[in-house]
Predict the structure of Ribosomal RNA small subunit methyltransferase G.
Amino acid sequence: MKKDFLKELLEKSEIYPTAEQLEKFAVFQEELREWNQKFNLTAIEEEEEIIIKHFYDSLLGMKITGWQSRSRLLDLGTGAGFPGIPLKIINPDLQVTLVDSLQKRIGFLDHLIQKLQLTGTQAVHGRAEEMGQNKEYREKFDYVVSRAVAKLSVLSEYCLPFVKPGGKFLAYKGPEGLEEYNGAKKAIQELGGNLYEMKDFVLPKQESKRLIIVIQKTAPTPGRFPRRPGIPAKKPLE
């Protein structure tokens, strides 16, 4: 892997990886490309694109105001581990729960957690609508992050039930993020959240825009949320 390229990108964003952390990213990339041949984990396969669109992009969440590295974080719809595993690599004190609804991805994540020796990290097979009603997970996390999963009105119902009061939900979005937020304001408030901040980024070389929408949990989520599996997507809150 082009470790110097990743190191340069991160240092320009005031993120300073160690040699050991860069090696973990190199192993991550190698495992991702190998497993991708069998399980189609990502459509992004070119080396620089993986570095920019997966590793660097995932770490933009650290640029929110007041980021705390000693926290509990849940990554919902993590796929091949984004953004949760890059955040864990750079912030080893994070306690990370990776959630995905496809078992083949959980198999990859379990392997990766062992390969990278990521202590305090677990991969869980499950659906947001069911896990969000489970006392083991409900309102237990300082941060919930999610990237490329659903529109914000739907995603908020999936994610906010996991966030403890005072915690934050980070939605990784593209240029459509502001429009999605405007359509989700009432839903976010009903779920116990309020806008904390939005941060714009432009990915290097790609020139593609990113928007991270940060919602702070200001009140407990009403017990009726999340609704039964499938309902949030079919009937989004308005």
